[in-house]
């Protein structure tokens, strides 16, 4: 069965929901033929890391709509008012909501859409171009896990990058490795009361949050936290660097020379990657201090170490470690490897598959996030364009304005496609 829509958005996360709201508010007729599809059974934000105490690292004002239209009914403040928590949130005196609140907000937005439809619990397995007799790309055919398909003129990816599983761990059995994107679900499946030896890998915020969560989720377990750096790094954000996360900075970054872009991304890396927020660092240090004070030795932070091999043998996982300071090799035996290793730097697998079908040697997009194709159909990429649109592209900071830009570009493209062709007679 093939279902036809004009616009299909793949992924029901913040990017696609921000786009859905923009389409409803700016192009109602397009909204009536727009569908958002996601593999998850329900809309949740960062499902694997929905820890009860975890907070967003971005102001609530950078929601799905406020930077585009502060008067939109889909704002986070209106969500708080509608759910009866506005006064309490104001009293909290913070701009950073709990992650659970953001997730609840996204569901509230999805439920409030009146024109755009959503289809949950059905994964997209492939996307291929549809061509006419002249081989022009006139649309897209997206195949779903249940065997059905969706045909669309416009396609927008909002799936984010794939989890990064370092090569050294890829031969381990799947039940021995837990990436942060599946942490909450996988830990919940472990037998209660079982003593587990955990090797936690990575120096990111997600690794730090899992280190804290493991004490509650797997009490009495042994946890060895392995990082390559000499110490955990605090994020380097300041009010000055935060200006580079403004939606308005996208124009400046996009217009910069390649060398300048590389410098900006390199210098901004410490604001978002392989770093931990100062409050989380304070909490972890105090926690480890109390461990020493009370003579607990079940949790260790092991710095300047590389995992050079990993294998399952004798009912356990054995990791070969190399100390970067001394070159000495040791072995660590554990039951479970937990990865806070972030995401694959390549384009998502689904996008790479489409690029192959199109015969593209290189995936690139315009300033309006449209895939570089001179075709009657159009495809847009959200959240994977750091190299051309800046470090904020994968974050909440720019998504409201990006949704507006994509919507306006689709409106313009539709008008162009409907315009009758003009011919000039030969002289």
From TrEMBL:
Family of the protein in this entry: Belongs to the lysine N(6)-hydroxylase/L-ornithine N(5)-oxygenase family.
Alphabetical keyword list: FAD, Flavoprotein, Monooxygenase, NADP, Oxidoreductase
Domain of life: Bacteria
Protein's UniProt keywords contain Hydrolase: no
InterPro entries: FAD/NAD-bd_sf, Lys/Orn_oxygenase
EC number(s) recorded for this UniProt protein: 1.14.13.59
Keyword NADP: yes
Stated name of the protein: L-lysine N6-monooxygenase MbtG
Cofactor requirement: FAD
Signal peptide: none
Lineage of the species this protein comes from: Bacteria, Bacillati, Actinomycetota, Actinomycetes, Pseudonocardiales
Example of a GO biological process term: intracellular iron ion homeostasis
């Amino acid at each position: 069965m093939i279902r036809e829509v004009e616009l299909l958005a793949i992924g029901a996360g913040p990017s696609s929901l921000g786009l859905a709201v923009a389409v409803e508010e700016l192009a109602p007729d397009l909204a009536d033929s727009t569908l958002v599809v996601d593999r998850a059974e329900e809309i949740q934000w960062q499902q694997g890391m929905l820890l009860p105490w975890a907070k967003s690292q971005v102001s609530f004002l950078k929601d799905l709509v406020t930077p585009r239209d502060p008067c939109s009914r889909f704002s986070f403040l209106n969500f708080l008012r509608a759910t009866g928590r506005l006064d309490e949130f104001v009293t909290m005196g913070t701009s950073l909501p709990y992650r659970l609140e953001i997730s609840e907000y996204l569901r509230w937005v999805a439920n409030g859409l009146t024109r755009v439809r959503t289809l949950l619990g059905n994964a997209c397995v492939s996307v291929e171009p549809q061509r006419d007799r002249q081989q022009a790309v006139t649309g897209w055919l997206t195949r779903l896990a249940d065997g059905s398909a969706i045909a669309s003129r416009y396609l927008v990816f909002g799936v984010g990058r794939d989890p990064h599983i370092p090569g050294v761990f890829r031969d381990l059995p799947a039940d021995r490795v837990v990436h942060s994107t599946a942490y909450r679900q996988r830990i919940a499946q472990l037998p209660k009361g079982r003593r587990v030896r955990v090797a936690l890998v990575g120096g990111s915020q997600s690794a730090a949050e899992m280190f804290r969560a493991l004490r509650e989720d797997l009490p009495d377990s042994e946890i060895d936290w392995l990082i390559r750096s000499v110490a955990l790094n605090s994020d380097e954000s300041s009010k000055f660097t935060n200006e580079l996360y403004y939606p308005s900075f996208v124009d400046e970054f996009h217009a910069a020379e390649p060398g300048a872009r590389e410098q900006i991304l390199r210098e901004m890396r410490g604001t978002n990657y392989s770093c931990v927020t100062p409050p989380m660092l304070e909490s972890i240090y105090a926690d480890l201090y109390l461990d020493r004070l009370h003579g607990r030795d079940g949790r260790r932070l092991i710095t300047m170490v590389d995992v050079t091999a990993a294998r399952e043998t004798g009912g356990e996982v054995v990791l070969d470690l190399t100390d970067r300071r001394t070159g000495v090799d040791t072995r660590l035996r554990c039951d479970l490897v937990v990865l806070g290793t972030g995401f694959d730097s390549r384009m998502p697998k689904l996008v790479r598959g489409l690029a192959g079908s199109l015969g593209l040697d290189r995936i690139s997009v315009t300033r309006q996030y449209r895939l570089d194709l001179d075709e009657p159909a159009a495809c847009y990429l959200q959240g994977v364009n750091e190299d051309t649109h800046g470090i904020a592209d994968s974050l909440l900071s720019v998504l409201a304005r990006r949704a507006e830009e994509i919507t306006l570009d689709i409106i313009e493209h539709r008008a162009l496609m409907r315009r009758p062709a003009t011919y000039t007679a030969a002289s």
